[in-house]
Write a structure and sequence with these properties.
Elements: H1 4-30, H2 38-48, H3 64-95
């Protein structure tokens, strides 16, 4: 069979997509939030306990988009630094 591996990979992708979509449809049908994480539950638990923060942030982003931009920029800078370190390490191993 010439395209055996390609057919197998395509079938796996279709199966995983179907499982994902069926679970999403079942969650939406039950009326629950589709992909709610632990952050919301933790915040609700902290607020219910009566916790008062000790300090206030010195700057808050003007919108959620700016906050997302800063988070993505931080991730990109970290990826560049890690990539540089691995590249430098791999390059030094080849010359030695």
């Amino acid at each position: 069979m010439k395209y055996g591996m390609e057919i197998t990979v395509a079938a796996l992708i279709v199966v995983f997509a179907a499982v994902f979509l069926l679970q999403d449809a079942a969650i939406r049908a039950s009326g629950e939030e589709a992909w709610g994480g632990a952050d919301g539950e933790a915040a609700a638990l902290i607020e219910a306990s009566g916790y008062e923060p000790w300090t206030e942030p010195f700057w808050t982003p003007p919108s959620g988009e700016v906050e997302s931009l800063l988070f993505a920029l931080q991730a990109a800078i970290g990826a560049v630094i890690i990539g540089y370190i691995f590249g430098y390490w791999q390059g030094s191993r080849r010359t030695a």
